[in-house]
Amino acid sequence: MLRKLHGLPGLLATLFFLVLTTSGAVLSIVPSLERSAAIIPAAGELSVAQLAERVLTNFPTTEQITRTASGEIIVYHNGDNQPSAVLVNPIQGTYLAPYQPSTWARWVKNLHRSFLLGDSGRALAGISAVLMVLICLSGITLLVQRLGGWSALLRPIAGSGSQRVHAELARFTVVALLISALTGSYMSSVHFGILPDAANNEPSFPEQVSGGTPVPVGTLTALQNVDSLQLKELVFPYLNDVKDFYSLTTTQGAGYIDQASGELLQFTPSSGNKQLQHWITVLHTGKGLWWFGLLLGFASLGVPALCMTGIKIWWQRRSNTLKPTVSAKSEQADTIILVGSEGNSTWGFAQNLQQQLVQAGKTVHCAAMNELASDYPKATTLFILTSTYGDGGAPSNANKFLAQLDLFNPKPQLHYAVLGFGDQQFPKFCQFGLDVDQALSQKGLQRILPITRINRCSATEFRHWGEDISKHLNIALTLNHNPAPAATTTFQLIDRIDYGVAVNAPTSILRFKPVQSSKKLWHTLRLKKRQPVPSFAPGDLFGITPPQGHSPRLYSLASSSNDGVLEICVRKQPQGLCSNFLHNLHIGDQIDGFIQHNPSFRPARGTQPIILVGAGAGIGPLAGFIRQNVAHNPMYLYWGGRNPESDFLYEPELNNYLKDERLCALNTAFSRATEKAYVQDAIQADAQDLRQLIAKGAQVLVCGSRDMANGVSQVFDNIVQPLHLSVAHLKAQGRYLEDVY
Ligand SMILES: Cc1cc2nc3c(=O)[nH]c(=O)nc-3n(C[C@H](O)[C@H](O)[C@H](O)COP(=O)(O)O)c2cc1C
């Protein structure tokens, strides 16, 4: 609700805000310019009587002296029988310059006040000011919530992108903007008679004047008693009209002065309302307080950036709104997904999980966490996917969840897994997910696996979590959701080597080069300064969205950016949209793709042995690791294919690597050769040597299908058992890495 109150008025009035704030910023300079041109006597240096006397010496036909809020003295007189206005030096009363209010400033002022549309424009400006008040107040509340309290208002702000720029700008400008908006709303209300106008409260004319002979203005006591700095306006009596009088307006009030006796005939001090109106004008325009005007002007300049980042945040949130569509009833479902989300991005991950579970034959109910039922009679699995907000708090659609748990009566068969979404820059990384995980455990529910925390919506971490879940539940899940895919680059196919057609496993090594498109000249120029394509290493991922495909497919890279080509190894899947698309490419064809870094699948630095295990196209990144091994660290490859005549991928390269000792040993197993064997068999055959290598600190990297990886992991479990180790141990030490699909 609060977010709507903040966003909707902003979206509606963005254009008006842009005009109001940019014109306001221009106008904010005017008081400083006027102030720098004005000659200001010291306090007590010059009385109004002295000022009027000196002015009259130089301008005998003076009708009025006005002092502007910036301190300029304007004299209206009838020189050469022509009414004219001049700026004068108050100390000497001498001519400075003609008084010509700047036409551009007047135009900008009109634009600011009424969008040059008269009274209807003034009404629009007034409404915009009121909307701005709403936005500022709701924005302050959201900011305090985001930072976790008033005391954190000046602390560094975590997060990134538009959210962060918006919050940083807001906290330094919001007070000034609120003052501008409040004062603007007040001034509009006075203009339209919604609030009383203090100007209607002028003193009434004196009933009696002495009618005596006028004395020189410099001798009038009432004027001698007023400092010229307090003067607003002095209107002279008509020449030769002894019944007329001076009318004087000062910062204190207004009254009349007898031109013969110098007596103050009637003086009405400024009412509270008038003082208020005066200060409101000062605070809105900066007139009389030039430095404050400049502050307001600077703050106004932040508004275009606030509008742009605000619209971007709104758009991101809108495009993230991907609520799962078909959801089973909670009483019928065997799997429950509950989602905690503020900015909607977690819904996208939940939808992907739901789709995969449904494909695996599950009946899935998906809802917001606040919609927790008191029981899920048929459910055996509960997934909680939740982000964290504020300072480690709940997102708004999950803020009742912990309280609702008291009424939750789960069946004993219900197991759960929590997936927290957060940002490591926040001190309480995924805190709400941790709290929920703890609370469910205290409720007596069994965990499927410990909580996983996803940093900044990482698609790779999500995919890995899916792999863990697959193993624990023994179902095939290929989670693939990337809410913010990186900008794509165009690549051209420059080389392809095709294998495996004869054994019904068409697999190709595809090599691409980035294309410098002349159409996107500015883009190219901009990127050229940095790097045309993000740098990548073997094991990183290449994302491609096939035509007619909705989400990108990720392929492990076999090359590094230093190789000058982008290389992937792709097995054609019978129903695979993307693999078929890639296999149908001809040399010279172009595709768009992006790089997704995958630092969790890399050989460890150092000189300890590396055992590489793969099957089929899984050899891609492994071949890349070997190619990079120019330091000749001990690397051993176990790889399984179908037939050495047909799909021995990378055979020539691997033989070269053996010769130049980038590879210590190559062990192959072929499932459709005379001696049928799988990669697990080749590993088992070397069990003793491998155990020794692992005892020496070797690291194992496995790449290929999930079934193959499961088989390999069982074999390794047996191999390392005598060392009192297990694959789980090795994984925890980062010595057993998998990249499976
Ligand atoms: C105002 C704000 C406060 C946040 N506070 C935290 C926090 O305390 N801890 C954390 O790990 N992440 C925090 N985050 C990051 C979000 O949890 C993360 O971006 C998450 O992916 C958002 O998912 P959602 O769009 O589904 O809400 C915060 C983000 C924002 C914008």
Automatic annotation (TrEMBL):
Domain Flavodoxin-like: 335-470
PROSITE patterns the record matches: FAD_FR, FLAVODOXIN_LIKE
Keyword hit for Ribosomal protein: no
Gene3D superfamilies: 3.40.50.360, Nucleotide-binding domain of ferredoxin-NADP reductase (FNR) module, Translation factors
SUPFAM superfamilies linked to this entry: Ferredoxin reductase-like, C-terminal NADP-linked domain (SSF52343), Flavoproteins (SSF52218), Riboflavin synthase domain-like (SSF63380)
Membrane-spanning residues: 123-144, 165-187, 289-315
Keywords linked to the UniProt accession: Flavoprotein, FMN, Membrane, Transmembrane, Transmembrane helix
InterPro entries for this protein: FAD-bd_FR_type, Flavodoxin/NO_synth, Flavoprot_Pyr_Nucl_cyt_Rdtase, Flavoprotein-like_sf, FNR_nucleotide-bd, OxRdtase_FAD/NAD-bd, PepSY-ass_TM, Riboflavin_synthase-like_b-brl
Domain of life: Bacteria
PANTHER family per record: NITRIC OXIDE SYNTHASE-RELATED
Official protein name in the record: PepSY domain-containing protein
Annotated source species: Denitrificimonas halotolerans
